[in-house]
Design a protein that fits this description.
single chain; 434 Repressor (Amino-terminal Domain); Mannitol-specific EII, Chain A; 2 domains; 6-stranded mixed beta sheet
Length: 289
């Protein structure tokens, strides 16, 4: 997937029209459309940073997708966000070339398991509460009980009804009608069908105490009004507390990145049970090229 496709996924997931994003970063809609379709190269780094700010995604997400790095390194930066987070934090902390070389020597000498043990042995490393809630991977938010395979034919109304009912099973006191209202209110702003048979309906709500992620795979795709006109058969539902809007946007970005890989969608569609789907999602950092 080229830079423009990744940008389109994140833009539509964030609920911004092409024209509105172009206005915010002071470019023409025609130019931005050419970038998204791959007819124009990625913008310069400063403009990419402006796009990241407008979309509300973590700094470096799109920039890493645009850089011409070794393919394996670029894939690692793109698919495992903590790698970019580590490099950014290391630079902010003042680490130099020799410090990185020392870490390389440690890793080569002790191996991956040895380095993990060395890090975990340092009991004095006290992570603050904000760092402890850092999003590391989509699978951190999924459990088998929140993954469902829907059999039979449905339309979009019925799908949203199923999603709302599923949410009420996991959030005590939250009414099905409330969830439906929030989902449709968000849908009226722009379709959450992000293309390639994938939808990411999402909303925030004051009654929620924690972020909730649900994965639904449909046996028969539904007409969803997606941006590419294709029917949807993979649906991530994301609900977050009103107080967790940053977490909401970051998780949306990571879901969008995950879904942008054909190998991910192929794996999920070929799985036969929720347990198999969850196992595949957990393995994605190492399996997605």
């Amino acid at each position: 997937m080229h830079f423009g496709q990744t940008l389109r996924v994140l833009r539509t997931t964030a609920g911004l029209s092409l024209r509105e994003l172009a206005r915010q970063i002071t470019v023409s809609p025609a130019y931005l459309s050419q970038v998204e379709t791959g007819k124009a190269p990625p913008p310069r780094p400063k403009r990419i940073q402006a796009i990241e700010a407008s979309l509300g995604v973590p700094e470096g997400y799109l920039l890493s997708a645009a850089e011409r790095l070794d393919l394996n390194v670029a894939a690692l930066l793109h698919d495992v966000p903590p790698v970019a987070d580590f490099l950014r934090t290391a630079l902010e902390a003042g680490l130099k070339g020799d410090d990185f070389q020392d870490m390389i020597t440690l890793l080569k000498g002790k191996g991956a398991d040895g380095m993990r043990r060395a890090i975990r042995h340092e009991k004095h490393l006290d992570l603050d509460s904000e760092a402890s809630t850092e999003i590391r991977h989509v699978s951190d938010y999924l459990v088998e009980e929140r993954i469902t395979i829907l059999k039979g034919h449905r339309d979009k109304d019925a799908l949203f009804g199923e999603l709302a009912s599923h949410v009420t099973q996991h959030v005590e006191g939250l009414k099905r009608e409330t969830v439906l209202h929030e989902l449709w209110a968000r849908e009226k702003q722009a379709s959450t069908g992000i293309g390639s048979g994938i939808a990411v309906p999402h909303a925030t709500h004051a009654q929620l105490e924690r972020t909730l992620l649900i994965l639904v795979v449909l046996e028969k795709a539904v007409d969803y009004g997606a941006i590419d006109g294709e029917p949807v058969d993979i649906c991530f539902l994301l609900l977050a507390p009103d107080s967790a809007r940053r977490e909401h946007l970051e998780l949306l970005a990571r879901v969008a990145q995950l879904c942008s890989h054909p190998s991910f969608t192929k794996g999920v569609r070929s799985a036969n049970t929720p347990a198999e789907m969850l196992d595949f999602v957990k393995l994605c950092p190492s399996r997605i090229p």
